[in-house]
Amino acid sequence: MLSKPFFGYTQPKFQYELLSTKLPRPAITTQPATVTLLLPREMGPNPSPILKPGVKVRTGQRLTWDENPGPAVVSSVTGTITGISAHLGDYGRKFTAIAIAVDPKDDWDKQFAETRGDLTLQALTAHLTGAPGAPPLETIANATRPIETIVIYGGDTDLLVDTNLYVLKSQTAAIEQGIKTLKKVTGVERIIMMVPGDSFQNFDGHFGADVRAVPNSYPQGQPLMIYYRLFGRILEQGQTFEGQGVVFMRAEAVASIGKAVTDGRVPMEKIVTVVDKQGQKKVFAARIGTPVGNLLKAMNITLADRDRLIFGGPMTGTAVYSEELPVLPDTDAILVQDSHDVVLSSDYPCINCGECVRICPANVGVNVLVRYLEAGQYQEGANLYDLYSCVECGLCSLVCVARIPILQYIKLAKFELAREVPAEEENE
Amino acid sequence: MNSQNKLLVSHAPFWHIGTAVPARHYNTIIAALPAILMGLSVFGVPALAVMSMSIASAIGWELIYTKIAKRPNTLGDGHAVMIGTIFGMLLPATLPWWAVVTGTFVAIFIGKQIFGGIGSNPFNPAVLALAIISISWKNHLDFDAQLVHFNFDFNAAHPLVALKAFGPEVVQGYSLTQLFLGQQVGGIGSTCGLALIIGGLYLIIRGFVRWEIPFAFILGLFITATLFHMAAPERFAGPMFHLLTGYTLIGAFFLATEDATSPVYPLPMLLYGALGGIMTILIRNIGSYPDGIIYAILVINLINPLVDKIRPKAIGKVA
Ligand code: SF4
Ligand code: SF4
Q: Is the torsion defined by CA of A390, A394, A398, A401 positive or negative?
């Protein structure tokens, strides 16, 4: 898909997609026969009587594991539950998968509409965390330290993806309403809206937020990069954005909040950019929980053995193993890669060519860092070679001559170090 | 939720720019070809024999090592071939086969593998090998003694040896143009400045070598030689003579730029190169070796990890 030009002296540069001013209407997929919802908790004993095969659920109905407070998911369709099973996500995150056979006609649940009169953060959190864009309301509600700033990113963090910019341009009113609501229910005064530089002029001043431009080159839209741009800081070991009083949100999440407030219904239609093997794109609106295969079919994409199916963009997405997996609230893009375009990484050692160092936007000393990480010396890598300055853009892996999975090593190192912190605290 | 197809699951990023390690080495060999061909045309069949022996034995040692150490076979990455090629380029056309084979043994086993293989070698393997065999068999590495039975249609004394022995007057006996075109005694692939520059520029344009190192190397050498020459023209030759003789240009473009032993940041690259150039002239002018490149490069290899610590601050790092 990409190849190094004959004149290899210059560094490759990537620009985010900028939509043309004429916005296409998203292609609406036909109603799927089944949807799968992922409730973000593992299965436990005593499930609520609703969570049983054969039970009918309404569109917008809140589903929880049991009566105790805990995570919820909102049904995106009306239909009959056909199965409850365990599902393992990335980095060991556990879910309960709820499969629902879809009825053709929506029967809307009234519960959210009833809470509309007095909107609280709790009410929004209860219904909207699984809405398109995955509004991080739970994070705001549960933060140990008060959230001071909400950063809304109006562009997309990865290449090829059109989703958030599309929402920003096509759902301006909903976003405005969403920002208003956010201010009211969270009490957060400082809402910063970051938009890609070249679309800046059109948006200045509409939103009731502090609108700022982000350069349009990759990886300026990565949350860690934006955080650095705004606050001049990085996240140190063990720190989180919310621990620093900051929450990031997709533009789509804000639009979801706005729409929910205006319509009295939890929005169900997720905008997804689908990119086929040739790089052709289409923007879809699909019910959350729709099997990805449905979208592929709508674009006439057929998968073969050893092809790659990716949730998210080419630089930071996640490869998945099945086209049966559902569209999730944060699935901004689905990328299909032909097996011929797949370049495998290797276990070859670093030859110290320095390509990674020269392309790194964060000035990480990747060539030495990777040696520490390969040896499993994560803490040394963090102390001596700036592991935590990495914004996880993947450019180093993109150019690595030895094809070392550098970004994988970096993420693994951060993950392992994060796991160590609680263990150490327990020991004290 | 299983697919009917077996999809490939791996981690981001899902694009790669397409570069690979073998391409780097093969391109270095391609870049070396003009200089080797010029050498072969000047020194003839014996040079061809030495080059072949050097490449073949380097491959052989690599193979033997990977067998003994039970490592995956790495011949395909072209690194051993490249070491053999570069090492051969430094040798006189008359070096006996056993010395060549010993040299590549040193390069592959001691220079590269015992430090952990490709990317981990602290010294340029070919340079280390040459340093060791030239200490071991001084006479065989004496170009004048070795090439005495050759008939050249140019001044057949090694320019730097002559300079060391007789002072800067000998410079008159050489034409700079002839030196530039490879009409001089020296290593098989290290005499033709023109061909080496062409190869070097090829590597720079293709992005396999960064301009900073050769540029700083040549500049450092040039300035230092000029200063010496201006201070005492009767004792020290001028900069052009130094630039076009001995291993200078192969050093600047092919030896100092070796990946594992050279820095990756701009300022360190400039310092590293410049220091190499300065060291070379210091050794040539006040040391006892006629050509200082080999030792200068070993020295800068040694300081590489130090200079490469001068790096830009990562984002978020204040101190
Ligand atoms: S280390 Fe790699 S992934 Fe991290 S910021 Fe630098 S180039 Fe990006
Ligand atoms: S690009 Fe890969 S091989 Fe080159 S220095 Fe970086 S990690 Fe090493």
A: positive
Residue A177, both tokens: 């309403």
* Cβ count near A112 (within 10 Å): 23
Judged by a CB distance cut-off of 8 A, whether residue B319 touches chain A is: no
* φ/ψ (deg, to 5) at B175: -95, 130
| Preceding peptide of B312 cis, ω within 30° | no
Q: Is B316 left (phi over 0), alpha (psi -120 to 50) or beta?
A: left
Q: A189-224 in b/e burial notation, b at 16+ Cβ within 10 A?
A: eebbbbbbbebbeebeeebbbebbbbebebbbbbbb
The ipTM of this complex is: 0.90
- Best of A343, A403, A407, A415 to disrupt the B interface by mutation (most B CBs within 10 Å)? A343
Helix, strand, coil % in chain A, rounded to nearest 5: 35, 20, 45
Q: How far does the centroid of ligand 1 lie from the alpha carbon of residue A365, in Å?
A: 9
- B244 Cα to chain A: minimum distance (Å): 27
Query: pLDDT tens string for chain A (428 positions)?
Result: 566 666 777 777 888 877 766 677 787 777 888 999 999 888 888 888 888 899 999 999 999 888 888 888 999 999 999 999 999 887 788 999 999 999 988 888 888 888 777 788 888 888 898 899 999 988 888 888 889 999 999 888 899 888 988 898 888 889 999 999 999 888 888 999 988 876 656 555 567 888 888 888 889 989 999 999 999 888 888 888 999 999 999 999 999 999 999 988 899 999 999 999 998 888 999 999 999 999 999 888 988 888 999 999 999 999 998 888 999 999 999 999 998 888 888 889 999 999 999 999 999 999 999 999 999 999 999 998 899 999 999 999 999 999 999 999 999 999 999 887 655 554 44
- What gap in Å lies between CA B207 and CA A354, rounded to an integer? 11
Smallest Cα–Cα separation from A81: which of A342, A224, A289, A381? Answer: A289
How close is the Cα of A405 to the center of ligand 2, in Å? 10
Enumerate the H helices of A222-309 as residue ranges.
Answer: 223-231, 251-263, 292-298
Closest CA to A395 of B259, B206, B17: B17
SS3 B144: helix
SS3 B138: coil
